[in-house]
Amino acid sequence: MSRRHIDITPELMLRAYRAGLFPMAESRRGDRLYWLDPERRGIIPLDGGFHLPKRLLRTVLSGPYRVTADLDFAGAIAGCAAPAPGREDTWINPEIEDLFLSLHHQGHAHSVEVWQGEELVGGLYGVVLGGAFFGESMFSRARDASKVALVHLVARLRLGGFSLLDAQFLTEHLSQFGAHEIPRADYKRRLANAILAAARWLSAPEPAQLEAAIRALRPPAA
């Protein structure tokens, strides 16, 4: 982790992601950003190693939620930045929000939103470069809402031809879905290949295609 202070622009952000780095603030109220380059990187498999529990599959397909993409990017990042039980502070300060909003307006950052009625109750956001999706953060204000967002993200990435889903750090929450750590050198090798891939972010795939992609995340028992 580098502690050197650098003025960060959206263009510099993209260069950093291509090199395998990402920025964080020390806290929600912190006024400095730092580059991170972890020795071990968390990734979520897109090639068949994603774990989708049967109960969660039912929730995704017939539960109380409506899922969109890029409908309320500002709301998604604000939800991730807000304090929550067990997470009283976050690394997303106002500068981070502004930078990602700029990346979103440029078409480089995307979100998945989970709604209960007209209320935004969960979601996530990240950056896209080629066939790599760099997941930044997620939030949940209702049961399983962030999990539903993650399932939709993985299904959309698989449909769009993505090969790398970067989770930055491994957490207990993500490990239940098959997320695991890989060494920095392995990550950067995968990253170099992924950013050259011709993938496509799908904000509104055909409903039947999306449902089939979601069901494919949990193959029938042998």
Description:
The chain has 222 residues and is an alpha+beta fold. The protein is 36% helix and 24% strand. The chain contains 8 helices and 9 strands. The protein has helices at residues 10-19, 54-62, 73-81, 94-105, 145-160, 172-175, 184-194, 207-215, and strands at residues 22-25, 33-36, 40-43, 66-69, 109-116, 119-129, 132-140, 164-168, 180-183. The longest helix has 16 residues, at 145-160. The chain is globular, with a radius of gyration of 17 Å.
Summarize the structure.
The chain has 222 residues and is of the alpha+beta class.
Annotate the secondary structure layout.
Blueprint: H1 10-19, E1 22-25, E2 33-36, E3 40-43, H2 54-62, E4 66-69, H3 73-81, H4 94-105, E5 109-116, E6 119-129, E7 132-140, H5 145-160, E8 164-168, H6 172-175, E9 180-183, H7 184-194, H8 207-215
Parallel strand pairs: 7-8
Antiparallel strand pairs: 1-2, 3-8, 3-9, 4-5, 5-6, 6-7
